[in-house]
Design a protein that fits this description.
Helix content: 10-25%
Number of strands: 31
Number of helices: 3
Distance between the termini: 37 Å
Radius of gyration: 25 Å
Number of domains: 2
Shape: globular
Strand content: 35-45%
CATH topology of the largest domain: Neuraminidase
Largest sheet: 5 strands, antiparallel
CATH architecture of the largest domain: 6 Propeller
């Protein structure tokens, strides 16, 4: 909290206790109300003036660092993985994954934890923490897709990671991971530039379902890229992706969406959410009880950033909303929707304005989006953002800075309540490989029955935790007691 609001409170307190207090009596209750509103407005103005802190370079290497992914664990620690090519060749694809963690405000020195054979490549795709206290890292590589898992305490050593190869002969260009509340892994990826594939693990990555075909490009002149997956707690799985066209050099031409009501057993017929050149790189977020948010990027002549939402779990949708100004353009990575514990929806998204390529942040108030703030500071060429929220209230963002080839980080405490994640015992579920149909089957959303024991909820609201926050909530905590003090003192003096 800044010092000047505290100085104002002390001045008011001193004034109320001074011998000159009777001069304040003619104000009456209307005057007191005005004073209180003034105090609150001071606090609100101070909160609105808060900005993201200057970004920090966390890779600091002579090599080209790229494709960062980030996750926050149950204790509030932050974990980042990115790719580098140890040969040092310019423009070479990364062949090694480097890891760093933020503990007590300091980043650990980067450590190489996963590598592929010489001549191969490795591209980070997703990173998450499961309820069993393990980091789950998804990456594509030559001819395949892999998932590496490590306890958060052992993630800083190569020996701490166990790798499962899910695809070994197909071309996988991108992937997305969601971990459900009960610990199940939901993974969606693009196979051979033509197919959107879904797989699931209910035992912490030990066994995986048979790959299910969610959708495919029907024409030889079409391809699919950039999938994203979200889940709810009732078996619903939601997937979005971008379609591209050969006639415009495989640039994006539209956003698609599909959903499953039963944890990937069946899939509704895919639907095109928006068509036309320039629309691509979409992201999803599910918000209890039944809301699905879809956010995407406009590039080229389309420009802007856009939003649609569904109040019935993806059955019907709102009209398209222009989320961020059409002054923003560029196709430099997807946006990330993040939900704080106070149910405020945030988005972190790359975009180029008249000045430079930057990373931006905005919030949704239920009917519109706030003007975006540049959070990448004065860095000249920022793109490829990846964001997460820690303990329900801290936004963590990493991205690629093209000039210098480094990974940068910044964060913001939203001021919402803290949520502590409690680690659950490691799952021991037996092999549950699920055979799924190869084609999509339309069906209505319903709540699936569960035969296996569910893992108990591992989130617990602890809003009483004392902490420092540069937010509206923190400022009001300081301002409101001062206003109440004014009321009590003046009323006592008036009675006398």
């Amino acid at each position: 909290m800044k010092l000047w609001p505290l100085l104002h409170i002390r001045m008011i307190h001193s004034f109320c206790l001074s011998s000159k207090l009777p001069r304040f009596r003619p104000l009456g209750m209307p005057g007191l109300a005005t004073l209180i509103l003034l105090l609150l407005s001071v606090g609100m103005a101070a909160a609105q003036a808060e900005v993201w802190p200057p970004p920090t370079n966390i890779s600091n290497t002579s090599l080209i660092s790229q494709a960062p992914v980030i996750a926050a664990d149950y204790s509030g620690r932050v974990h980042v993985i990115w790719g580098e090519n140890l040969s040092g060749e310019a423009r070479a694809n990364p062949d090694t994954a480097f890891y760093s963690t933020l503990i007590d405000g300091a980043w650990s020195p980067p450590v190489d934890v996963i590598a592929v054979a010489s001549g191969n490549y490795l591209s980070p795709a997703a990173l998450a923490v499961d309820p069993f206290g393990r980091l789950v890292f998804v990456y594509t590589r030559n001819g395949g897709l892999s998932v590496s898992i490590a306890p958060v305490e052992a993630a800083g050593t190569a020996r701490g990671w166990v790798t499962i190869d899910l695809e070994t002969t197909s071309r996988i260009n991108s992937a997305s991971l969601a971990i459900g509340r009960f610990g199940e892994y939901h993974l969606v990826y693009i196979r051979n530039e033509r197919e959107v594939i879904y797989v699931r693990s209910a035992d912490g990555g030990m066994n995986w379902s048979t790959p299910a075909l969610v959708a495919s490009a029907e024409l030889g002149t079409r391809a699919v890229i950039s999938p994203h997956v979200a889940v709810d707690d009732r078996g619903g799985v939601y997937v979005t992706w971008t379609q591209t066209a050969e006639e415009i050099s495989w640039s994006p031409i539209g956003i698609w969406f599909a959903r499953s009501p039963d944890e990937g057993m069946t899939w509704d017929t895919p639907q095109e959410m928006v068509g036309g050149p320039g629309n691509g790189s979409s992201t999803l977020l599910f918000m209890e009880p039944d809301t699905v948010h879809l956010f995407w990027i406009g590039s080229g002549g389309t420009r802007g950033r856009y939003h649609r939402y569904s109040l019935d779990r993806g059955v019907t949708w709102s009209n398209t909303i222009t989320a961020l100004s059409t002054d923003l353009t560029g196709f430099a990575g997807r946006g990330y929707l993040l939900l704080a514990s106070d149910n405020v929806l945030h988005v972190v998204v790359p975009g180029a304005d008249a000045e430079r390529n930057s990373i931006w942040h905005s919030t949704w108030n239920g009917s519109g989006w706030a003007a975006p703030r540049r959070i990448s500071g004065d860095l000249p060429d920022s793109e490829g953002a990846y964001a997460t929220i820690g303990q329900g209230h801290v936004l963590h963002v990493v991205w690629n800075e093209l000039q210098g080839g480094e990974i940068w980080y910044t964060s913001l405490d939203t001021g919402s309540s803290a949520v502590v994640l409690q680690v659950q015992p490691t799952p021991t579920t037996a092999n549950i490989a699920i055979v799924m149909p190869p084609t999509a089957t339309p069906s209505a959303m319903s709540t699936p029955s569960r035969t296996e024991p569910q893992i108990q909820a591992f989130a617990q609201d602890i809003s009483t935790i004392p902490r420092t926050s540069n937010s509206t909530s923190a400022l009001l905590i300081g301002v409101v007691p001062a206003a109440l003090l004014v009321i009590v003192v003046v009323l006592l003096k008036a009675r006398r």
